[in-house]
Structures are given as structure tokens and as C-alpha cells.
Amino acid sequence: MGKLATIDVALDEMLVNLAAIVLRLSKPDVTRTPEARNALAQSVHQYAVCAARSTDPRVHELKLQLEETLKPSLRVVARDGVKVS
Description:
mainly alpha; two-stranded antiparallel sheet
């Protein structure tokens, strides 16, 4: 059982490192094109599939952070009828 635990820990570490890479690639200046956004969505989905089996809380927190990157950012363009920059 020790070997399985070692493999599990190694996989969790790989998932944490992968999430860090995907988070860097999720920045708006990197994902400008529809193709880049689609690639990001695929990466986040695949990460979520892999993270589902993990028991490491870091992996699940990173999964939530990655899923947040797919949500459109909202910004205020007018307040009380006045344009805001």
C-alpha cells in the first residue's frame, strides 16, 4: 500500500503544478482569441476530471480557481446613467 500512497502524492503534486501552469495561461492577455479560450476551457475541464479523484484539498481549491477563470468578467460601464471608465 505504500507504493500506491507514493504514487497518489506524486500525482497530486503534478496536478498542483499543472494547475499553476494553466492559471498562468488563463490571463486575459494570453486568452484573447476564441481558439485560446476554447483551449483554456478544455484544459480546465480535463483538470477537473483528473482532480475529481484526488483527496488533496489543494487540488480541489485549484480546480475551483481554474473554473472561475472560465466565467466572463463583469465590469461596470455606467453608474446612474453616467459612463464609468
